[in-house]
Amino acid sequence: MRAFREAVEAGDADAMEDLLAEDVVFTSPVVFKPYAGKAITAAILRGVVRVFEDFRYVREINDPGGRDHALVFTARVGDREITGCDFLRLNEEGLIEDFMVMVRPLSGAHALAEAMGAQFDRIEKEAQTRSA
Predict the structure, then answer these.
(1) I need a labelling partner for 90 at 20 to 30 A (CA). Which of 7, 65, 70, 120 fits?
(2) CB contact at 8 A, 92 and 65
(3) DSSP string, 71-121
(4) From CA 124, how far away is CA 128, in angstroms rounded?
(5) Are strands 96-104 and 20-27 parallel, antiparallel or unpaired?
(6) CA 92 to CA 72: how far, in whole Å?
(7) Which residues of 2-17 are buried (b: 16+ CB within 10 A; e: fewer)?
């Protein structure tokens, strides 16, 4: 999805949020239970922007029907290099309704879990502020 990729690459958190459906479901690579809702998903994405360094998309895979997209990325968390993929599914209005992230290697996933865990109080407060 070109618009989301451009928003992420520009670091434009508001544009990223604008592309999320109200009932979006976000599946983290490091947490068992998915997160439901635009406010928490947008707050998580802002947290990821703070945590990832040297982030860049390296490949884009699109469904010919236009609803499913995969964006392969590389980034660094501390001293760990990560390769990952954002899997996006769009609803009928063209907004992201399902957002699943996978990362590798395991040591990178552990570094990401630790860094995002340190951000989570802030993420929850941001989500509450946005949904109020």
Answers:
(1) 120
(2) no
(3) EEEEEEETTEEEEEEEEEEE-TTS-EEEEEEEEE-HHHHHHHHHHHHHHHH
(4) 6
(5) parallel
(6) 24
(7) eebbebbeeeebeebb
Tokens of 128: 């509450």
- For residue 57, what are its two tokens? 């998309």
Phi-psi region of 35 (alpha: psi -120 to 50; beta: other; left: phi over 0): beta
Mind listing the pLDDT tens digit of every residue in the chain (132 residues)? Answer: 789 999 999 989 999 999 999 999 999 999 889 999 999 999 999 999 999 999 999 999 998 878 999 999 999 999 999 999 999 999 999 999 999 999 999 999 999 999 999 988 999 999 988 776
The two three-digit tokens of residue 60, written as one number: 């884009």
Amino acid, res. 27: T
Q: Which residue has the tokens 């998580």?
A: 44
Q: How far apart are CA 108 and CA 39, in angstroms?
A: 26
The pTM for the full model equals 0.92
Length of the chain: 132
